[in-house]
Every structure is written in C-alpha cells, then in structure tokens.
Design a protein that fits this description.
heterodimer; A: Rossmann fold; 2 domains; eight-stranded mixed sheet; 10 helices; 12 strands; 25% strand; globular; B: 309 residues; mainly alpha; 15 helices; 0% strand
C-alpha cells in the first residue's frame, strides 16, 4: 500500500549572488508515500520553502541553484527534466499552495479565470466543461460559484486562500505542497482550511507536504513529521515518534519547549537561545552546536550521521 | 463611471479659469506694447494711441480680464491682432498638423517602446537588453533638434529618400515623426522594462508558473496588463507634451504647427491667439489625462471599483 511518491535524496541548494553564496539546503533527505501527509517543521529560514520550490523547480531564476542531489517523483528525477516536461507536472501532478494569499493571485484576472487556467493547461475540455469544473471547485472550497466573476480584491484573505486551494486541487494532483497555508489567516479560518485540506486528502487520496512552523497543526493532521534546521532534516518520523518517543534531537526538544503549554504549569517559556546560523557562514560539525544545551566536543568537529530506529531518524551525536 | 467622467469634466472649469488668469497676467504685466509692435517703430504716437483705444488696452488689467472671460463664455475669443482673423480659425488651421505629428509619433513610440521594453525585461542582462538600454539612453540624451538635423542630413540630403521640409505628402511626416518619437520611445522602453521586471518578481507570477503555464503565456496573460499601468501614464503625459511642445521640431522641419503659432504669437504679444491656444491646449491636456484615467479602469479592476464609488 505504501508506495514511494516523492523521494528527495541528498539535496543541496545554494542561492548565489555576486556578493555571497547562501547555503540554503545542505543534504536534505525526505520520503513521502502516496496518500500520506508529511509535516515539514522548522524556524523561518530553515529551508522549508526552498525545499518546496526546488521540487517544482521554481527557485528564483539564475540565483537558486540545485548543486547536488535528486528529487525523485514517481520514479523520475525532477532535477533532470526539461522545462517543457516540468510544465506538464506542475499544476497537474504536483501543485502548490503558496504562503501569502494576498499576493499570490493576479489582481487583474477574475478568480474564475485563474482557476480555469490550470484546468485549461492540463485537461482537454471544452469551454462549458471547464466552466462547470470551475464551479465545482469553488463549491468544494465553500465559495458560491457565482462569485467566480469577481476579482481577488473583492475577496477576504481566507477566501483568497480557498481560491488558491481550489486552483491547486482542480487537476486532482498526486502531490500537494502547502507552504504555510494557514499562516496568513486568523485562527478560526485556519481551522476551516485545515479541516478542508484533511477532508480533501481522504476524498482524493492526495499526498501532502505541509510546511509550517506550527506544531499544533502538525499534531492535528500529519501522519509523518520532519524537522528542519539550517537546511537539513535533523529529525524525522511518524507523528507518534516525534510527539511521544523518549529520544529527541535537542533542537526538537527546544522547539517543544518554546510552545506555551496549557496543561502543565510553567512560569516561563523555554525558548531556544541564540539565532539560526548565518547560511552564508555555517558552523563546522553539527550546525546546531552553538545553540545546543547538550553540546559535546565531537559536535564542534564532526557532522553527525542519521541514526535510524524503525521509523524514527535522528541526526545527533547523542544517539549512537 | 459616468458620474466620474462628468465630475472630471466639471473640474475643467476651475482649471481653465486659473490657467487663463495666469497667462493673461503674464502677458499684460510684462513690458511691451502690442499696439506698437503691430504698427511698427515708424508709426506715429497718435496712431498707436488710437489702436490702443481700439483694442481696449487702456482699460485697467482686471477689467480687461473680466471682459475677456465674459466674451469667451459667449464663444467670442477675439481676433488675432496680427491677421485680424478669429482666434480659433487660426488655431484650427494649425492644429491638425500638430495632432497628426503627435499621434504618429506616439504610435511609433508605443509600438516600438513597449515590445522592446518587454523583451529587455524578459531577457534581462542579454545582448538585446544591453543594446536597447544603450539605445534608450542615447535617445533621451540627444536633443531633438540635433536628431532632426542628423536625420535631414542622412535621409534627405545624402540619401534623398525623404523631403527636407514640408508635409505635402505622407513622406514628409516620416522624419519629423521619428524625431518627435525618439524621446518618448526611450522613456516608454525604460518604463516598460522596469515595471515588467517588477511584475515578473511578483508572487502571482510564481503561482502561474506553479500551474504549469509557459513563459510566453505568463508574460502575455499575467504580466503585461499589470506592467502597463505606469506606462500608460507616461504615454499620456508625453502625448500632451507633444501637442504643445513640438516647436523645435516644427522649426527644424519648417512645419506650420500649433507650437510655432503659439511661440510667434507670444513674441508679437498677440494676446487673443496666446490665450486661445493656451486654453485649447489645457483642455486637450485635461481630456488626455481623463482618457488615461479611464484606460486605467479598463486595465485594472481595482481602479474601476474606485471610480464607481
């Protein structure tokens, strides 16, 4: 049943400008099975969005460069595909929901036109069929179909996000990448959007890569979790592994310590001290060592390897 | 929408009153006696005084202004001091040439400037981009009389393809049109390039790419409309300038246009012509501005929503 859909192997991405080289991804390994929901968690700047953009090869032109590694999607290496072949995959087999609904829709086209475009590009349907598909998609995300003639500025943020979701789902993709789909929304709308995405996952059996820094969201809907730090996956496993297992990467522990807990009484939050390392000048050894409370001599010198136990993988010298 | 247009047209009234008052003051308060200029240095003092009386130049300034406004509301803008013909006969005699030149050169500038700007932006840092930016820089830095003279030198005198002066046939328009278009074209090219570069970086363009749209489709369907708004402004302003400010080019090519008429009228203190021409240009400029604003509404639904409020 669990068939690998997406397999990212040892992915390195740099952002290269005249002044500096930003090492955004440093050997990312990630596996996603069909119909599964994977939560990719990490601080701002950890490389989550870069991972997502490199899957679709939408990294900023001439600046974002994949220097090493493979992205296998359904057995094919996406990094080796030509632009024309990629266009057939984008929007149809892999689609993406972007972070900011306010700016992700074209202000001069009606929402109907924008949803119709993706259908037009990938399906051979006549005008009438496209229109009825647009209606269907809008109704699916809870927007009355008659509003398709309106422009994005006539919609609220949450409604725009639904339009983007409708757009992303209209070709029944095998993989949906959702880049912080709820960050720009207020809490009540967040819950609606998440419920909707979960429903859709069951209905369409779409695999989902959910990028977020909200662990609560992850706990709520994800089957698997991967935690990113400075361009690496430092811990990954099933939701149970991450939320219930005893052994964790110190960064994961810190991440959980940074969330207010309503049940246990604590006087202070325990934030992770320090900042993410400068990606133009990454530390040697383990990239987390300057902030790690359990830092050892070896951490400063040797880059740790993955330690795998069944489904749970940790990249830390504490565990051998 | 109609309400908006009517509101804008109503706003013309104070604008024209203001402009006419300023121009009237400048002409009246600067030294130089129209009667003396008309009759020449050899006329007797008595004849000049009689003409002053006849033209009403001895009345106080404010009184003259009020009577000018009063008669213009009735449609009488007076007659030229020099030719004695009604003002608008003179203006309408010259305007078609100016309008044609302005229209042709704006069409040329737009038809070349926008595509070149788009190509430069899409192929940023390429040879085409570099070449067109250098070309645009040259066009903005060369004065138009010099471009005109060089064109005459090459195409009229050396190659003998186009006439040196005059617009007897369509050939005569070619060189003046190119001369006038050069500056606007350069500005439009640069403006289109910079707004396109801005638009290409927008999130919705990335969304379109994520949908699997081709580069061509993205540029035509998603970018151009968004990039055109500032370009339309520039086109409108340049068109307005061309209507009134083609004097230098008209002089180089010896064309009897509105600019030449206005400048010679200023020199002769031919008040009715100056006033008539300035008011006419002000109205033309305002209407072009209104058209530009209406084009915004066609391009951008957000602007349209504002107008109908």
């Amino acid at each position: 049943m669990s068939q690998t859909l997406l397999n990212i192997k040892n992915l390195y991405v740099n952002y290269e400008t005249d002044e500096e080289t930003v090492r955004a991804l440093n050997g990312v390994n990630l596996k996603l099975n069909k119909g599964e929901m994977l939560g990719l968690v990490g601080e701002t700047g950890a490389g989550k969005t870069t991972t997502a953009l490199s899957i679709l090869k939408l990294l900023p032109k001439d600046i974002g460069i994949i220097t090493n590694g493979q992205i296998e999607f359904d057995g094919k290496d996406l990094t080796k595909l030509k632009e024309a072949e990629l266009r057939n995959i984008r929007g149809e087999r892999i689609s993406m929901i972007f972070q900011d609904p306010m700016t992700s829709l074209n202000p001069v086209l009606t929402v109907g036109e924008q949803i119709a475009e993706v259908i037009e590009l990938h399906k051979t349907l006549d005008k009438k069929q496209i229109e009825s598909k647009v209606n269907e998609m809008l109704e699916l995300v809870g927007i009355p179909a008659k509003r398709k003639k309106e422009f994005p500025h006539q919609f609220s943020g949450g409604m725009k996000q639904r339009v983007i979701i409708a757009m992303a789902l209209s070709c029944d993709p095998e993989l949906l990448i959702a880049d912080e789909p709820t960050t720009a929304l207020d809490v009540t709308i967040q819950a609606q959007v998440l419920n909707m995405m979960e429903e859709l996952k069951h209905k369409l059996n779409t695999a989902m890569l959910l990028i977020t820094h909200d662990l609560g969201v992850v706990a709520q809907i994800c089957d698997k979790v991967a935690i990113m730090y400075a361009g690496e996956i430092i811990e990954s496993g099933t939701a149970e592994d991450i939320f219930e297992a005893k052994e964790h990467h110190p960064y994961t522990v810190g991440l959980f310590g940074s969330i207010p807990n309503l049940i246990e009484k604590t006087n202070r939050l325990k934030p992770i001290l320090g900042l993410m390392p400068d990606p133009t000048d990454l530390p040697q050894g383990c990239k987390f060592h300057p902030r790690c409370p359990q830092c050892m001599e070896i951490c400063r010198k040797v880059h740790p390897d993955d330690r795998q136990t069944e489904t749970h993988t940790i990249k830390c010298h504490l565990y051998k | 929408m109609y309400k908006y247009i009517i509101k804008r047209l109503m706003m013309l009234i104070p604008v024209i009153l203001g402009i006419s008052f300023i121009v009237f003051s400048i002409i009246s308060l600067t030294p130089g006696d129209p009667a003396r200029i008309i009759l020449g240095n050899h006329a007797s003092e008595e004849a000049v005084e009689n003409l002053r009386q006849e033209l009403g130049l001895n009345e106080p300034f404010i009184k003259r202004y009020i009577s000018y406004v009063g008669s213009s509301i009735k449609g009488d803008f007076g007659s030229s001091y020099r030719t004695g013909k009604p003002v608008f006969e003179d203006i309408f005699g010259k305007f078609p040439l100016t309008l044609k030149l302005a229209l042709f050169s704006m069409l040329l500038a737009t038809a070349l400037g926008i595509p070149i700007g788009i190509i430069s932006a899409v192929k940023r840092y390429s040879i085409i981009d570099g070449a067109s930016m250098i070309f645009a820089l040259l066009m903005t830095s060369m004065p138009s009389f010099w471009i005109g003279l060089m064109l005459i030198l090459i195409f009229s005198i050396k190659l003998d393809i186009f006439p040196v002066t005059g617009v007897e046939n369509i050939k005569g328009y070619v060189l003046p049109t190119i001369t006038l278009a050069s500056f606007s074209m350069a500005i439009i090219t640069r403006m289109t390039r910079s707004t396109m570069l801005e638009v290409i970086r927008q999130d919705y363009v990335r969304t379109a790419r994520a949908k699997g749209a081709s580069t061509k489709r993205i540029i035509f369907k998603h970018c151009i409309r968004n990039a055109l708004i500032p370009v339309v402004t520039v086109i409108g302003i340049n068109f307005g300038i061309l209507l009134g400010g083609t004097v230098i080019t008209e002089t180089v090519f010896a064309l009897p246009g509105l600019g030449t008429l206005l400048v010679s009228a200023i020199r002769m203190k031919d008040m009715p012509i100056v006033m008539g021409a300035v008011i006419f240009l002000a109205i033309a400029f305002s209407i072009i501005n209104l058209l530009v604003d209406l084009i915004y509404a066609v391009i951008d639904p957000r602007v349209k929503a504002q107008y109908s409020r």
